[in-house]
Amino acid sequence: MSTVDTFTITTLDRAVAKAKTLNDSGQPIIRPIRYKGQDKYVAFLHPYQVYSLRTTATANTVTWWEINRSALSGGREEGADNIYRGSVGEYNNVIIHESARVPLCCATTTPVANTRRAIFCGAQSAIMATGRDSDSPDAKMSLKTEEFDYGNQVGVSAGLIWGLKKAIFNSNDFGVITMHSYAAAP
């Protein structure tokens, strides 16, 4: 991967096009999530990829700054909804979140320096499971309250056993596209 392979809005456009069509290996389309009646995807980018996305400006290309200025002038409040809270923004119905946990790209099993693997997700890309409280067959969460200081203070404890895992179907990742790019520290 070379320095010209940085993360741009075109990278997101390619991922959306790929998600909507079958690929050569017969993978199914990636269904978008439905949020308030609209189809949306979610992408997780490393901070260096977000930096590339925000600073890329080439001739005849719309920049990230122009896209977000138009969205805000069109009436969308930044961070108004839970799905957008903490997000970098949205482009082409892809809600973009920043995460320092995005891994390095790998050549076989060896990580490659200055590269990152952004994750593009649709519906059913992850599976969540919860355990249940052993005291009650219906309760998934334990909740305990105690009074201290002769009833002047109350303590609350909540517990939940849960797990989240990437969906795999027939030995293939399901509902996910990885987007590789050059992403050196700015």
Word description of this protein:
The chain is an alpha+beta fold and 186 residues long. The chain folds into 2 domains: 133 residues, no CATH class; 40 residues, no CATH class. Helices cover 16% and strands 37% of the residues. It is built from 3 helices and 14 strands. The strands form 5 sheets. Strands 1, 2, 3, 4, 7 and 14 form a 6-stranded mixed beta sheet that branches. The mean pLDDT is 80.
Largest sheet: 6 strands, mixed
Helix content: 10-25%
Which stretches are poorly predicted, pLDDT < 50 over at least 5 residues? Answer: none
N-to-C SSE string, H for helix and E for strand: HEEHHEEEEEEEEEEEE
For the record, give the distance between the C-alpha atoms at the N and C termini, rounded to a whole number. Answer: 17 Å
Radius of gyration, in Å, reads 21 Å
Mean pLDDT: 80
Give the percentage of residues in beta strands.
35-45%
Q: In the residues, how many domains can be counted? A: 2
Total strands: the figure is 14
Q: What would you say about this model in short?
A:
The protein has 3 helices and 14 strands.
